[in-house]
Automatic annotation (TrEMBL):
Gene Ontology molecular function: any one: NADP binding
Residue span, Phosphogluconate dehydrogenase NAD-binding putative C-terminal domain: 190-254
Record domain 6-phosphogluconate dehydrogenase NADP-binding: where: 4-140
Official protein name in the record: 3-hydroxyisobutyrate dehydrogenase-like beta-hydroxyacid dehydrogenase
A Pfam family reported for this protein in Swiss-Prot or TrEMBL: DUF1932
UniProt xrefs under InterPro entries: 6-PGluconate_DH-like_C_sf, 6PGD_dom2, 6PGDH_NADP-bd, HIBADH-related_NP60_sf, NAD(P)-bd_dom_sf, Pgluconate_DH_NAD-bd_C
Length: 287
């Protein structure tokens, strides 16, 4: 029997996840009401079935995956709760967003009529570079892990506790995106002192700073909410939230620059360092 997976928020990541499931034999459906032209193109390129309303997604789906910007996770959960009330449908729901454990617990509270699986994605969209790891936790985590991922995604079951999979993401993202913020500020500072090429050459012995900065900038707006979720997670662990509140401010400033206006799927490799920094030194980051 073919499983039907509904994706709420299919975009750069969600369309890629949907493509992996589609290639594995699932039927994948997503709503397009209010979505941008770019998002509709990503969905069409992935070959996903489209419907208009969220209610239509619930009517069709056995499983719902939420893949939205971190700051929107709770609002989307509330919208799904409303659709559940209207349709009477109770599909298994998995939140795959980059949010703190208490936030995913709040999602589960909002969706009290549904069984909820906590999930987190580590890696790029599988249609861009197969091999992402997706962590799952909760009593029904094995059911989401058992979807036909077609080898493009490695599912890992963490535990039966809601919040555990999100904790993994908060820890790993703090390093990946925190390092990206360090590189971004380092290159911006290097530009001020006229030493960009020397800094890139030195860092390039261990890292790929220019491509990292260019790709991260294209997702900077989304990173702001994620960094605040990391700050909340570290606060709950007894640590100061100040570090990642500051990192959130770095990405907020980057989001105002010219460099941030490139869609992530359009960011090439081996970017020119001087061109990247010139586009970075606009907006609030230059002030």
């Amino acid at each position: 029997m073919t499983v039907t997976v509904g994706i709420v928020g299919a975009g750069f990541m969600g369309a890629g996840v949907g493509r992996a499931l589609l290639d594995g034999g699932a039927h994948v459906v997503t709503g397009v009401a209010g979505r941008s032209e770019r998002t509709r193109r990503l969905i069409a390129d992935a070959g996903l079935t489209t419907v208009d309303r969220l209610d239509d997604v619930l009517d069709a789906a056995d499983v719902i995956l939420s893949i939205v910007p971190p700051a929107a996770a709770l609002a989307v959960a509330g919208e799904v709760a409303g659709a559940v009330a209207r349709t009477g449908r109770t599909p298994l729901f998995a939140d795959l967003n980059a949010i703190a454990p208490p936030t995913v617990e709040a999602v589960a509270d909002l969706l009290a009529d549904l069984d909820v699986v906590d999930g987190s994605i580590s890696g790029p969209p599988p249609d861009r570079s197969p091999g992402a790891t997706v962590y799952f936790s909760g009593p029904r985590a094995a059911e989401i892990a058992g979807l036909p991922w077609n080898g493009s995604i490695e599912p890992v079951i963490v535990s039966d506790r809601i919040g555990a999979a999100s904790a993994v993401k908060m820890c790993t993202a703090s390093v990946y995106k925190g390092l990206g913020a360090l590189m971004t500020n380092a290159l911006a500072t290097a530009h001020t002192h006229g030493v960009v090429d020397l800094v890139v050459g030195d860092l390039g012995r261990m890292l790929d700073p220019v491509d990292k900065v260019a790709l991260s900038a294209s997702k900077a707006d989304r990173f702001v909410g994620e960094m605040l979720e990391i700050a909340a997670t570290q606060r709950d662990a007894g640590l100061s939230p100040a570090l990642f509140e500051a990192v959130a401010e770095v990405w907020r400033a980057v989001a105002t620059t010219e460099l941030a206006h490139t869609a992530p799927e359009d960011v090439g490799r081996n970017a020119d360092a001087q061109a990247v920094v010139r586009r970075l030194r606009t907006g609030e980051l230059a002030s």
